[in-house]
UniProtKB/TrEMBL annotation:
One Gene Ontology CC term in the entry: cytoplasm
Function (record text): Function in general translation initiation by promoting the binding of the formylmethionine-tRNA to ribosomes. Seems to function along with eIF-2.
Keyword terms, alphabetized: GTP-binding, Initiation factor, Nucleotide-binding, Protein biosynthesis
Source organism per UniProt: Halomarina oriensis
Protein name: Probable translation initiation factor IF-2
Whole sequence portion shown: 1 to 461 of 601
């Protein structure tokens, strides 16, 4: 037996792939996930599907039930898929982990009638930067005029069964999406024509409303993850846990808690953990690990259930003392078989990876999470806009002070992404004539700033 076989035995095989669902607001991310969950319930495996914090685990048997003959469980070594819920419209940018993306694979949801929109492009940038393999769900095919639903039919046949007019219209929209992907440097095609999904993007027409195409989508996701996990992943699911903070949240009775996606190893109650924070990493002991109650939708006093141990990949809420300064997007590491100092160093190194190159003169950037800060810094770098300060957090008076020392008017600017502007800071900004740009779409934020610079330059001429 080779070394790697031994590791495999100790680790209990491949871990569940983490799937992120990304896309522009209203293109159907939530509906698509709801459809997958709902289909799992109607397939009679409601008990098998588990709600995690920030994630939904769908076991292989359930996927196979939904996908029918498209997924034969005997062909797969994967336990299932863990879909990360990305509530709100920005949290996908927090989905990072050691070495890149938290998600192993992603589904980019595009409204087939609406095509590529700012957040679609933002998602594409993140997927590119983190080299995350992905597929495109061309959603809302049922809204095509003249659409004739074909439930329980593979989507390719559904398309063929449409009237000429509906088929033509849909094909035109689908080819526009393929064209957009190609403009963004990807070779893409309808999924049944894509042989090797590495570097080639498969487009799967779906309807989160009727469920058409959902079996196809799951089958393609399974095929893609199986290939990807086999090639690139040898994960020991019994080691000390590593995870990423999705959200830092107050929870009545528990104080400040962390919603975490664990992507490696295990975490147990009483474990010591190191968490990336605003200043020095936090070292604390896990007081409780929480999961939603099985019937969380029924209003109960007790919303959470305590668990003793969680293994990757999974979402979990961590209750522990001293979590106030923890950062969304930051790493969480369990200390086991290693000194606390060594783990602190690892967490610091991981946080340093996203430190932004700053110039002597430039704009001030404030963002809600490390991931979004990183994404904005990247976009600004691409647009050749220098940054003087980039930080996570609300816009405070000291940011105004930094912005006002810029010696070029066009840099006396603060770009605020998804954060609040403290009242004092807003007053000072107005007194000192500092421009504040606030948005929750990166592209728009940068566009607004560029429009302002253009206007300034026109005025100067
Ligand atoms: P999200 O913001 O990306 O999570 O989008 P939602 O899932 O909230 O969907 C936005 C709207 O589009 C909702 O009103 C959904 O009911 C609707 N919607 C989503 N998917 C479909 C679909 O496949 N067909 C139709 N007809 N409507 C859809």
């Amino acid at each position: 037996m080779s070394d790697s076989d031994t590791t495999m035995d100790a680790g209990g095989g491949l871990r569940t792939p983490i799937v992120a669902v990304l896309g522009h607001v209203d293109h159907g991310k939530t509906s698509l996930l709801d459809k997958v969950r709902g289909s799992a319930v109607t397939s009679g495996e409601a008990g098998a599907i588990t709600q995690h914090i920030g994630a939904t685990a769908v076991p292989l048997e359930t996927i196979s039930d939904i996908a029918g003959r498209l997924v034969d469980p005997d062909d797969f070594d994967l336990p299932g898929l863990l879909f990360i819920d990305t509530p709100g419209h920005h949290s996908f940018s927090t989905l990072r982990s050691r070495g890149g993306a938290l998600a192993d694979i992603a589904v980019l949801v595009v409204d087939v009638n609406d095509g590529f929109q700012p957040q679609t492009l933002e998602a594409i940038d993140i997927l590119k930067r983190t080299q995350t393999p992905f597929i495109v769900a061309a959603n809302k095919v049922d809204t095509t005029p003249g659409w004739n639903p074909q439930p329980d039919t593979p989507i390719q046949q559904s398309l063929e069964a449409q009237s000429d007019r509906a088929e033509q219209r849909l094909n035109q929209n689908l080819y526009e999406i393929i064209g957009e992907l190609s403009d963004n440097g990807f070779s893409a095609d309808m999924y049944w024509r894509v042989q090797n999904f590495r570097g080639n993007i498969g487009v799967v027409p779906v309807s989160a409303e009727t469920g058409e195409g959902v079996p196809d989508l799951l089958a393609v996701l399974m095929g893609l993850s199986q290939r990807y996990m086999k090639e690139d992943m040898s994960i020991d699911t019994t080691g000390p846990g590593s995870g990423t903070v999705l959200e830092v949240k107050e929870e009545r009775g528990f104080g400040t808690t962390l919603d975490v996606v664990l992507y490696d190893g295990t975490i147990r109650t009483d474990d010591t953990v190191v968490v990336g924070a605003k200043n020095d990493p936090i070292v604390t002991d896990v007081r409780a690990l929480l999961q939603p109650q099985p019937l969380a939708e029924i209003r109960t006093e007790k919303r959470f259930e305590k668990v003793d141990e969680v293994s990757a990949a999974a979402g979990v809420k961590i209750a522990a003392p001293d979590l106030d300064d923890a950062l969304a997007g930051a790493p969480v590491r369990v200390v086991r078989n290693q000194s606390v100092e060594a783990v602190i160093e690892e967490v610091e190194a991981e946080l340093a990876e996203i430190e932004v190159d700053t110039a002597e003169n430039g704009v001030v950037v404030k963002a809600d999470t490390l991931g979004s800060l990183e994404a904005i810094a990247d976009a600004l770098d691409e647009a050749e806009i220098p940054i003087v300060r980039a930080e996570v957090g609300d816009v405070a008076p000291r940011d105004i002070a930094v912005a006002s020392t810029a010696d070029e008017t066009k840099h006396e600017v603060i770009l605020a992404f998804n954060v609040d502007v403290l009242p004092d800071a807003r007053r000072e900004a107005s007194d000192r004539n500092i421009r504040l740009f606030e948005d929750d779409v990166i592209y728009q934020l940068i566009d607004e700033y560029e429009a302002f610079v253009d206007e300034m330059e026109r005025e100067q001429q």
